[in-house]
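Two proteins were folded this term; both appear here.
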Amino acid sequence: MNGVPTISVSMGDPGGIGPEVLVRALAQNGRRKRARFLIHGSSSVLHNAAQVCGVDPFWWQVDGRSPLISTIKTHPIVLLDSDPRMKEEGIEFSFNGKPDRISGAMSFHWVKDAIEDTMRDPSDPLHAHGIVTAPINKLAWSLAGKNYPGHTELIAKTLGQRRFAMMFVGKKLRVVLATVHIALNDIRDVLTIGKVHTAIDLGHQACLDLGIHRPRIAVCGLNPHAGEDGLMGDEEQRLIKPAIDLAIESGIRVEGPFPADTIYRPAMEGKYDLVVAMYHDQGLIPVKLLERDDAVNITLGLGDVVRTSPDHGTAFDIAGKGIADPGSMGSAIDLAIEMCNSKIQTHAL
């Protein structure tokens, strides 16, 4: 497998659709020839997912603590199985279609293991260039005592990055968020000139990395009608416009703030390459409406580490039925391969 990137994959919540979309995505489109994959998860759950999806198991599995790990560079897909350790600790799986403390603990540790792969020495057989994360459930993490609002914050903190952002890439839209997993009530206390500028700056660099020359960026206002010149709030003049001006001074092509209810149409039609949204639902509602099963979540600001994930959740209501669409997971894997290859080539120059 020389010459291809290594991608570490966390299986996601074992009671959700993550294992199913993962096995179906890796069974498609020759992806197994374009990268090596290290899957952190449960062999029993992954085999069950393959069975309900009608997919023959195609991975080599090994106890995550086994000395045989030293041989894995000869295998394109390896499952680093946590079942032996769980069995020794007397942990039994019992998933009933809702957030669960044990599933939260398992999915959290799989993500941590995947992150650690990117921090290993390049000579280590478990070294990875990037991460693809299957969906987790935030309440399950909380029940397990893991107090992170999501993947993004955990990955950034573990890698020591304080300047990061969440971006969504689809076929029609690209959106980056200035704030992420916080309550609407708290946005006024959290939104700053720096957060808005960080989203613009990191989003601009991400567009360049994706091959977009001189990207055009539109920035949303926070309030209805982008504040209507101060009649509906002052955040546009006090926070958002100064951040836009700073970005313009550094050579970024950016405009706004625009009313969020009108800017997505011109962006979808190609006038802008990226929209900067002020909060989660302002950016995610149009993405999930227009890019269902195609959009990919990227964490920006991780240095040389690539991280992508599908843009959907655990979907407990359809898990185990073999009907979950693997489109977004497949897109996440494809984009991770593309971005890892780009970074590898850049370092080779």
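Next, the second protein.
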Amino acid sequence: MLKKLTNEIAFFQSHPLGMRTLLLTNLIYGLVMPIIELFVGAYIMRNSSDISLVVIFQLAVYTGIPTTFMINGFLLNRVPISKLYSLGMLLSGVSMAAMMSLQELNTLGVFIAGLIMGLSYGFFWANRDFLALNTTKDKNRNYYYGIETFFYTMTGIVVPAAAGAFIAATQSNGWFAGNVNFAYYILTVFVFCMTVLASILVHRGNFQNPKKAPFLFFNFDRLWNKMLGMAALKGVAQGYIVTAPTMLVLRLVGKEGSLGAIQSIVALLSAILLYVLGRWAKPQHRLTIYTIGLTLFVLGALFNATLFSATGVILFGLCLAFARPLLDIAYFPIQMKVIDYVAALEKRNEFTYIFNHELGLYIGRLFGCGLFILLARYVNEYIALRYALLVIALVHFLGIFMAKSILNDRSWDNSTATEDDPGLVREPI
């Protein structure tokens, strides 16, 4: 066992410094992601009787992300990418503080807090995607995303259980004069500390900014247009899936303690599988992995819609625990490979496609969030929680056909490819 662990560490150390630094930075930041994704929604539900405010917050987040991607594109001409990346991580703490400072949760206040969180995610993901693209090659991207997802999964085991237990203990033991919201304030301080630490580490990577070049374009190669369609389908699920587990658990299972415990249990079940896939899966396995992930997502949504009980939520959580990381392991390497190809073909800055991809995601997110808000406010919350997820899962399932179309596109057979220009070489993706 010790020899196996030593070999894995040596294999990790064999990769470039930039890639290793990026992975370690994301590991530290991964400690705060479960708090942001799970307990911000729980805080809104605890302090408001309007469940649609959770999705309004998420819609504001998704509105801020593409806006920040565009701002980030202009700032990259003048500001080091490591500073912009750090800013994104630090703003997540600012958003949580803004939320906690609201005396009364209303649509405007929640939207503003969500917009700040969108700025945080925008700076984080825009620069993280570019750095991931430039510190990896297609042959090691399965490993990179497998390790990154493994890190996020492991933090997803520890953090939700610890945070959920802390909130539950505050309530049951009467800590802080029985003020449960004070527990959320302490979690906000923890988020600030972790983001500061991650911000310090990222400056050790000696990352380079993209070359100064225009990044706003509207006409693209056919292959990239297919990638945008796949992004929109992914966005449909993202628009709801981030907040769905929180709302379902708190409605049908229990309080924050149950939320953290369930999240940790399901994360533990998928951690080892993810590492193995990231370590050994080959480029030609990506479509199979993606198909399995989408099938599990639909199956989990079907459990929720059919049972709509604590059992249904737990089964949905189990399916989702495997589905989300499987989809990420397959999706991101495909996206990066397409960017490698079309950036070389169209002779444009890679950030052009990172920004444009975010617009594709945003279109899907608007549909996903909008569907839930309309159902919750103009039909009823029961229908929104029980059936919207299944509709969204079925729409997202179409991504299998889009991914297959991308992988089998004739554009990959480029007769001008050479060994000196590997971005155009026909390889299994």
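Residues 262 and 330 are 25 Å apart (CA to CA). The radius of gyration is 21 Å. These notes refer to the second protein only.
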